[in-house]
Design brief:
- With about 300 residues, the chain is mainly beta.
- A hairpin with a 5-residue loop joins strand 5 and strand 6.
- It starts with a helix and ends in a 15-residue tail after the last strand.
């Protein structure tokens, strides 16, 4: 009866939970497959021996997974069944497990002749990535169900703010601005989008980008962390770009003998239309258009006159 019951348990787990897994298959080496939900169903068959400095166990068939802690305390449970090869089920066979923190320091271990282990971590750091190593004691093979309550699907979703440098209420057209975000635990990339009066110069897929303000008008900078489990929630920061004021002065007339003429500290050598840029009160360029005209004096030719003696 027991032999029939254990495959049935595995079938039920796989039927209702297995197809929702997005982790894929645990890896043979570090860093391990990233769990996207709190249940992973696997098997120890086919994994090879590697060097494992964390436990005094015989790691003939170790496999690796990762998860991002979503709560504290955090409970990890591992149940093994369907032992298929010598040394068989406990006490000869059994499971081996190591839980490591983000720096690969030992958090908890289990070695030896048992087919089930469950422990609660009361010092879990929400948002930190933990690593789990699973293997068969004495090289035994088995099916297993790993449950972690509770995890974050891929990365830390804690709200963050985008920092701007410089951080100003209004920018000038053409100004370069740096936008940055703190690294997100579990993220493998960052997708930046700028909508409105700005364009990305460089930095895409990193924690910081450079934006050139185009203006005038408003805009928003958004970043979405991504991981093996897909995209996360975007965080955004708005900005505003000042308009360049254009002041067209009325035409000014001068005699030819007046050239070159000086107006507002500017020298104009001849007649024409001239554009000059100045720094306005908001620190941005302003434009003044001068129209300089030369007065044309008409030449009068008197008709010939005849005088009598």
């Amino acid at each position: 009866m027991k032999k029939l019951l254990l495959p049935l348990i595995f079938l039920c787990f796989f039927g209702f939970v297995g197809f929702s897994q997005t982790c894929g298959v645990a890896t043979d080496n570090l860093p391990g497959c990233l769990m996207c939900n709190n249940v992973y169903i696997g098997n120890t068959d086919g994994y090879t021996q590697d060097i494992n400095p964390w436990l005094p166990c015989d790691w003939e068939n170790s496999q690796w997974l990762r998860f991002v802690a979503g709560t504290n305390p955090l409970t990890v449970s591992l149940t093994c069944f369907n032992f298929t090869n010598p040394p068989g089920p406990p006490p000869a066979g059994g499971l081996e497990l190591a839980l490591l923190d983000q720096n690969l320091n030992i958090v908890s271990t289990a070695c030896g002749s048992t087919n089930m282990v469950s422990f609660t971590l009361t010092t879990a750091i929400i948002g930190e990535t933990y690593t789990i190593c699973i293997a068969g004691h004495n090289g035994s093979n088995f099916d297993f169900v790993l449950t972690v309550d509770d995890i974050i699907g891929g990365f830390d979703p804690q709200p963050q703010s985008i920092q701007a440098d410089p951080d100003l209420p209004e920018y000038c057209p053409g100004q370069l601005v740096n936008y940055n975000i703190n690294p997100v635990n579990g993220a493998t990339g960052y997708t930046w989008v700028v909508n409105g009066s700005g364009t990305i110069v460089n930095g895409q897929n990193s924690t910081g980008i450079v934006v050139r303000m185009t203006g005038p008008g408003g805009g928003v900078v958004c970043v979405t962390p991504t991981s093996d489990c897909g995209p996360g929630t975007p965080w955004c920061k708005s900005f505003n770009v000042a308009a360049i004021p254009i002041n067209t002065l009325p035409p000014m007339e001068f005699c030819s003998s007046d050239f070159p003429v000086r107006i507002n500290g500017e020298t104009f050598p001849s007649a024409g239309v001239f554009t000059k840029n100045y720094t306005g009160s908001n620190g941005c360029d302003s434009t003044v258009i001068y129209t300089i005209m030369q007065i044309i004096i008409p030449t009068t030719v008197e008709p010939a006159q005849t005088f009598c003696q």
